[in-house]
């Protein structure tokens, strides 16, 4: 995430100060190879359909700088901002403090408290926020120094290990933070996959399918690898014992 932040800053810096250097390199390249360079201060004659640029003061230099150079960089910045907003970057940076790493260098109690106060204020009461800092201090000493903890690779394995060793009951607030962070969508892949699956499930012949049934069908379709492992007989038995029925099922 810090790399994303620095990339966005460098791209913005390129937009602000990079045109003159780029243009100088292009001129040098053309001169070394006897390529004619356009008169950049000449009037730019727009193609058909671009009448708004048929202005006396709109130059070729403005066209290349604004319509091409700035436009290309702005599209990159917009894409990065859409996928990695400032709020999302800050959220993920603070979340890295929970990652199980060798030596636990990333663990920072203040960052984790900021994570809770800023992004999960409604998931913790004021009293729990006060207790959290104390739990984190014990967690850092008791869990961070454990040999099995150092062998964990990610938050998911950490969450499972806390439950397995029953430390989730000793540090319930820390465990709650980890669970909340694990629910974060780190990309749009799931959403794109959902829209793709919708075209397969809700066809022209099924255009009147209800929302609940559509949702259930999409879950089964998307998670079909898990659904294939389900035992149909056990599902039938569970359905049969849900309530008393007039006719034996």
The end-to-end span amounts to 55 Å
Question: How much is the average pLDDT?
Answer: 83
Q: What is the number of domains?
A: 3
Question: Helix fraction?
Answer: 55-70%
Quaternary form: single chain
N to C succession of SSEs:
HHHHHHHHHHHHH
Supply the helix-strand structural class: mainly alpha
Kindly estimate the percentage of residues that lie in beta strands according to DSSP. under 5%
Q: Based on DSSP secondary structure assignment, what is the total number of beta strands?
A: 0
GO molecular function, one term: protein dimerization activity
Domain HAT C-terminal dimerisation: 155-225
Pfam families: Dimer_Tnp_hAT (PF05699)
Protein name: HAT C-terminal dimerisation domain-containing protein
Can you describe this structure?
By secondary structure, this protein is an all-alpha fold. The chain has three domains: 2-84, no CATH class; 87-182, no CATH class; 196-240, no CATH class. It contains 13 helices and no strands. 7% of the residues are buried.
Question: What is this entry, summarized?
Answer:
It contains 13 helices and no strands. It is flat and about 85 Å long. The model has no long low-confidence stretch (mean pLDDT 83).
């Amino acid at each position: 995430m810090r790399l994303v932040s620095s990339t966005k800053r460098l791209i913005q810096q390129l937009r602000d100060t990079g045109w003159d250097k780029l243009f100088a390199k292009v001129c040098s390249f053309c001169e070394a190879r006897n390529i004619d360079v356009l008169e950049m201060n000449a009037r730019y004659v727009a193609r058909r359909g671009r009448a708004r640029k048929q202005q006396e003061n709109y130059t070729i230099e403005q066209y290349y700088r604004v319509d091409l150079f700035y436009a290309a960089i702005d599209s990159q910045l917009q894409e990065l901002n859409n996928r990695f907003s400032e709020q999302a970057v800050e959220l993920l940076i603070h979340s890295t403090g929970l990652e199980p790493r060798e030596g636990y260098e990333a663990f920072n109690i203040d960052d984790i408290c900021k994570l809770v106060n800023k992004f999960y204020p409604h998931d913790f009461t004021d009293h729990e926020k006060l207790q959290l800092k104390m739990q984190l201090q014990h967690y850092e000493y008791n869990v961070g120094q454990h040999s099995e903890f150092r062998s964990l690779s990610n938050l998911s394995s950490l969450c499972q290990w806390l439950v397995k060793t029953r430390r989730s009951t000793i540090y319930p607030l820390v465990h709650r933070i980890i669970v909340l962070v694990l629910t974060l969508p780190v990309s749009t892949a799931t959403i794109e996959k959902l829209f793709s699956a919708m075209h397969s499930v809700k066809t022209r012949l099924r255009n009147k399918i209800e929302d609940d049934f559509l949702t259930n069908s999409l879950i089964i379709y998307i998670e079909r690898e898990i659904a294939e492992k389900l035992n149909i007989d056990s599902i039938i038995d569970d359905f049969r014992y849900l309530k008393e029925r007039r006719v034996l099922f």
